[in-house]
Structures are given as structure tokens and as C-alpha cells.
Design goal:
two-stranded antiparallel sheet, 5 helices, about 140 residues, elongated, mainly alpha
Amino acid sequence: MDKRHKCLHCSWSFKKKYLLNTHMLVHTAVKPYSCPKCPKKFAQKGGLGIHMTRIHLQLERHKCTLCEAQFSTRPELKLHSRIHVDKKYKCRLCPDRFVQKSDLVRHLKSSKHRGKKPYSSVPNFVEWFLANNSKTT
């Protein structure tokens, strides 16, 4: 029979008591492992190792050439790079444009456009802007 040491705070269990004791640190404010490159602290040595790999070691390899942004993975950098050139999702209610469809959807659902009529061209934009941004005094 396999005796498991169960955590009292979550559903995790461990074969060895010392593994449970190490795990218990995640449920306390005790974070004995400090990052040497930033102020972040970790309850477990493994957490520090993951942080160092993902944040500090990888950042040097994934820097945006157009701004100061840095990323831990190439896909994150690739997605970020689109903000500099590729805003293909156009709002039908205002001149705003977005890189991701999800950003356009969030924009359309925002209170900014509640009850507003869409504008259709640049000359009409002035009318649209004045009608939708007038101050009531």
C-alpha cells in the first residue's frame, strides 16, 4: 500500500514527507529563494529556476527591434511585433484599429459605443465625433 502525505490546504499529495514540507511553503508567506536579478522571491527553488529561465535568460534572446519590449518566448515576440504594423481589425463605429480580433470584440462591447451610430467615411467622421463626444452642460 502506497502511503501518501496529503496537503491540508489543497489537493496535492506526496510520496515523501520532505516533499510535502517543501510544498507547504507555497501556502505561507515564507519565500526563502530570492532572484539575483530582480526583487522577486519564491517559496521553492524550482520556482526560482523556472523564473530565471523564462524571464532573465530568455529575455535576452527575444527583444523587439522596434521598441523596448522583451519577451520570454518567440511566439510572444511575434504577436507583439504585429502592433507595430498589422492593425487589420477595423472598428465599424470609430476610426480605431486592432491587431487581434479579440481586442476589437472587447472594444465593441465596451461602454464607449453603447447607443452610438457608426461613421462611414472621413467627412462624416467630424459629424460622428461631434455628435458622440459633445459635452452636456
